[in-house]
């Protein structure tokens, strides 16, 4: 499984698994037992039984790979356009604060490309494109970083030292 790259099997791995199913189909035709096939191909007996049912219903063609479970509905060009839209920021799309949420990205996709995605689909799309979830640091707009640094260096050590020393009692 290639989860870090967005999920699903690589093309090579899909090909390997299809070849396993087709080897099993040859052995189904010879009348071999599911447990023997499973042991030799190093797969579970349940998988072999599932393949045998598919083979009984549709022959070897039923065991061929169906391709990836789902393809991204946005093309590479459309995703590049989406990234440009996201780079403009939420304010450019009518939101007051500067946070991108899955719901907001879903809305931008709907407005720009006339496609509907679920929130989970938007998350998968963004992860596939290399985006990650990030939570903004909650800081006051009026925060003075120099004053905070000074307080940490000067005031905090005095407050920390004022504790009563621990002595054996």
Number of helices: 7
Unreliable stretches (pLDDT < 50, length at least 5) are 1-6
Order of helices and strands: HHHHHHH
Proportion of residues in helical segments = 55-70%
Strand content: under 5%
Decide which structural class fits the backbone: mainly alpha
Sheet bearing the most strands, described? none
Radius of gyration: 29 Å
The residue-averaged pLDDT reads 85
First and last CA, distance: 60 Å
Overall 3D shape: elongated
Quick one: how many beta strands?
Answer: 0
Descriptive report:
56% of the residues lie in helices and 0% in strands. It has 169 residues and is mainly alpha-helical. Helix 1 packs across helix 3 (45-58) and helix 4 crosses helix 5 (102-113). It has helices at 11-30, 34-41, 45-58, 76-88, 102-113, 119-128, 145-161. It is elongated, with a radius of gyration of 29 Å. The N and C termini lie far apart (60 Å). It has seven helices and no strands. Residues 1-6 have low confidence and may be disordered.
List keywords for this structure.
single chain; 169 residues; 56% helix; mainly alpha; 0% strand; 7 helices
How are the SSEs placed, and which strands pair?
Layout: H1 11-30, H2 34-41, H3 45-58, H4 76-88, H5 102-113, H6 119-128, H7 145-161
Helix pairs in contact: 1-3, 2-3, 4-5, 5-6
Structure described in brief:
By secondary structure, the chain is mostly helical.
């Amino acid at each position: 499984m290639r989860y870090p790259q967005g999920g699903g099997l690589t093309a090579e791995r899909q090909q390997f698994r299809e070849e396993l199913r087709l080897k099993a189909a040859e052995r189904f035709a010879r009348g071999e037992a599911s447990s023997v096939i499973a042991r030799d191909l190093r797969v579970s007996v349940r998988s072999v039984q599932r393949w045998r049912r598919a083979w009984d219903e549709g022959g070897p063609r039923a065991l061929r790979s169906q391709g990836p479970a789902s393809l991204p509905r946005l093309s590479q060009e459309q995703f590049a356009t989406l990234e440009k839209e996201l780079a403009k920021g939420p304010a450019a799309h009518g939101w007051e604060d500067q946070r991108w949420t899955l719901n907001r990205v879903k809305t931008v996709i709907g407005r720009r490309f006339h496609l509907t995605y679920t929130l989970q689909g938007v998350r998968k799309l963004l992860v596939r494109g290399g985006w990650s979830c990030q939570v903004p640091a909650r800081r006051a707009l009026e925060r003075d970083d120099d004053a905070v640094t000074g307080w940490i260096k000067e005031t905090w050590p005095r407050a920390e030292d004022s504790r009563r020393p621990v002595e054996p009692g």
